[in-house]
Amino acid sequence: VDQLKNLFSTINLGELINKDNEEKPEQLLPEVTFKGVAEYIKSDKCKNIIVMCGAGISTAAGIPDFRTPGTGLYDNLQKYELPSPQAIFEINFFKENPQPFYTLAKELYPGSFKPTTCHYFIKLLEQKGLLRRAYTQNIDTLERVAGVGGDKLVEAHGTFHTAHCVQCRMEYSQDWVKEKVFKDEIPHCKDCEELVKPDIVFFGEPLPRRFFNLRYEDFRLCDLLIVMGTSLKVHPFASLVDGVEDTTPRLLINREKCGESDPLMKLLGGGGAGMDFDSDKAYRDVCWLGDCDDGCLALADLLGWKNELKTMVCNQHKEIDQNSQATASKEKCPSKKSA
Ligand code: OAD
């Protein structure tokens, strides 16, 4: 309490009040609404869109997210008897006890899931020449499966695509690791016999170099940031929302609001951090609450792309079904004429 009192006594309230009275930056959206964002995308001002996404864009594919109470992964790990749910992705815990991670990996291994409408919406942004980059926290590789180019992707929490020995760093392919995992074997390095781990980022490990190499330039040039299916709880990923210019509009499509500015931080003078959807000073942040797939379809509708998106999803799902020799999708693709 004393420390807080000291802290508050050093804050210059006059300065804070002035900060609050500062003029807000230029508003680029014709109106601060979902429709306003669509109008802005259609204008020639919006050429570089960045998408930031998380586990919520893949729940419709059947992959659980992490933090949704009840269905999220962290509420369903009791059988592993972990010291804490996140331990399954902690590097020090993994080195001591890799079994829980590999048992889970077997369930979640890429290859058994189909991208969602939201993944194909990202692909559509790329096809329209509007996607500067998609920054994903997901390790399910569904952006790649949807056809988003590797150059357009930053897999910020790594990927199952490749794997390395945790000791000598010898590289192993996804197929080699997958074969072991599906035989319930723990993959060990052929050379030094240490553990081999897919290149997904565990707590306690640095993010890939590509994340740091691209983020500053990408976010400086960003004309619109679309955040989808993430609780924005994990840093440094979550703080990317503050990397765009003060004027850059930001759209959140999610089941719940997140990433809002922390009132305490604001009081302490860090007013720029986080998004502001609701205050009377809101000038660039828009929130669409609901399922990502519905949000993407609603946006595609306003952009006149809805039929194109639905056709893309349907055709791609059929192709995946055929390639995996599963029963062909019974969904009927929309005809070119219908909206
Ligand atoms: P979370 O589980 O923390 O958040 C998922 C968000 O998506 C929540 O806000 C859900 O309400 C929302 N959501 C779920 N399904 C949705 C749907 N169909 N439509 C719209 N919204 C939906 O997942 P992340 O934010 O991705 O890191 O988690 C971030 C990181 O925490 C992960 O990358 C992982 C984890 O620990 C590591 O393992 C390093």
Indicate the structural class. Answer: alpha/beta
Share of helix among residues?
25-40%
Overall radius of gyration: 22 Å
Q: How many strands in all?
A: 9
CATH superfamily of the largest domain: TPP-binding domain
Q: CATH topology of the largest domain, anyone?
A: Rossmann fold
Oligomer: single chain
Q: Which ions, cofactors or small ligands are bound in this entry?
A: 2'-O-acetyl adenosine-5-diphosphoribose
Compressed to H and E, one letter per element, the order equals: HHHEHHHEHEEEHEHEEHEHH
Give the overall pLDDT as a whole number. Answer: 89
Distance between the termini: 61 Å
- Could you describe the largest sheet, including whether it forms a barrel? 6 strands, parallel
Q: Count the DSSP helices.
A: 12
| Total count of domains | 2
**So, CATH architecture of the largest domain?**
3-Layer(aba) Sandwich
Low-confidence stretches: 8-18
Overall shape: globular
Q: Approximately how much beta-strand content do the residues carry?
A: 5-15%
Textual characterization of the structure:
The protein has twelve helices and nine strands. 33% of the residues are buried. By secondary structure, the chain is α/β, with parallel strands linked by helices. Strands 3-2-1-7-8-9 form a six-stranded parallel β-sheet, sandwiched between helices. Strands 5-4-6 form a three-stranded antiparallel β-sheet. The protein folds into two domains: 32-52 and 117-154 and 219-325, 3-Layer(aba) Sandwich (Rossmann fold), CATH 3.40.50.1220; 64-112 and 158-200, 2-Layer Sandwich (SIR2/SIRT2 'Small Domain'), CATH 3.30.1600.10. The longest helix has 18 residues, at 306-323. The model is unreliable at 8-18 (pLDDT under 50). The protein starts with a helix and ends in a 16-residue tail after the last helix. α10 (263-267) links the parallel β8 and β9 (285-289). The structure holds 2'-O-acetyl adenosine-5-diphosphoribose. Residues 54-56, 59-60, 65-68, 72, 89, 137, 157, 201, 203, 229-231, 233-234, 254-256, 258, 291-292 line the site of 2'-O-acetyl adenosine-5-diphosphoribose. NAD(+) binds at residues 55-59, 65-67, 137-140, 230-231, 254-256, 292. Its cofactor is Zn(2+).
